[in-house]
Design a protein that fits this description.
mainly alpha
């Protein structure tokens, strides 16, 4: 990465990690349903503002089926993320959600977008083994809250992986379609407000929502425009992964989250698997690994 990109990378990664912690605060004060709805609305608003700032027109609408499918996937992603953060805490939820690139690689292979190489296959094996350690050895036992939190986190990761592959293919880079999909996702989640109830926001929750909005403003440019090349894709993946690691550290150090020793091992394996799948390791290390006799696809 060129040296001039490091400040931007660090700032975006910090915002991404902060948004996870902020959403956890919002879920605790507002309830998961309202936090998920507001997340979709904030993304829609920031995509609109970012597009207007870049001089692009935002026209709502688009092909009905792709927009609706994307909206349903975004609803699952937002709701699953909110429930997972509320049930598991920041650190365990982040570890489950970090599996998204693994699911994205499998989705890309099924649709013929990506090709699973020897390095990717190794990353998938290592990453899913780490994910098994994370979900199979919880610090507080197999409680109902942990089980539902893990299932919702996995659903969110799967939905995010689906959107990352389906959206660019069917919706393109049209910001109006992205805004429409997020507004529809908020509408899909709205009935759950009646079922789950709405908490009264305090100062902490309002501040958290402001931080989510700030994070969305900073992150919107790398979410709106599909990566133009491999370097841009690696930059985006690196921002998200680094932000996840920062949120994991905050959860463990400042928020009192706990992990078992096997979950820590799983976290390291998930991180290594994601690095391999997302092609974030230095090319020199990959070439050395291949020359040592590693299998090739």
């Amino acid at each position: 990465m060129p040296p001039r990109n490091w400040p931007r990378f660090a700032g975006l990664a910090a915002l991404w990690g902060a948004s996870m912690v902020a959403l956890w605060i919002a879920v605790g004060g507002l309830g998961w349903a309202l936090a998920a709805v507001l997340q979709c609305l904030v993304v829609a608003a920031t995509v609109t503002l970012a597009s207007r700032g870049a001089g692009a027109r935002v026209r709502l609408g688009g092909p009905a089926v792709p927009v609706l499918v994307t909206a349903l996937a975004l609803a699952v992603q937002s709701a699953g993320l909110a429930v997972a953060l509320g049930r598991l805490g920041v650190a365990p939820a982040v570890l489950v959600l970090s599996a998204m690139p693994l699911f994205a690689a499998l989705t890309g292979q099924v649709w013929g977008i990506d090709r699973i190489t020897g390095v990717t296959a190794a990353g998938l094996g290592v990453g899913f083994l780490g994910l098994l350690f994370v979900v199979a050895f919880p610090a507080d036992g197999d409680s109902w809250a942990f089980i539902t939190g893990v299932l919702c986190g996995l659903a969110s990761a799967l939905a995010a992986a689906f959107v990352s592959r389906y959206g660019p293919r069917r919706l393109g880079a049209d910001p109006g379609r992205a805004v429409t999909a997020n507004l529809l996702a908020a509408a899909v989640l709205s009935p759950w407000l009646v079922v789950s109830g709405i908490g009264m926001p305090g100062v902490g929750e309002v501040a958290a929502l402001g931080l989510i909005a700030l994070a969305a403003v900073g992150i919107a440019p790398i979410l709106i425009v599909p990566p133009r090349d491999a370097a841009a894709a690696r930059f985006t993946s690196g921002v998200k992964l680094t932000g996840m690691v920062l949120a994991l550290g905050v959860g463990l150090v400042a928020l009192g989250d706990r992990l078992t020793a096997l979950q820590v091992v799983g976290a390291v394996l998930v991180l290594c698997g994601t690095l391999l799948v997302s092609a974030l390791l230095p090319p020199r290390l990959v070439r050395r690994w291949r020359s040592s006799g590693a299998p090739r696809a």
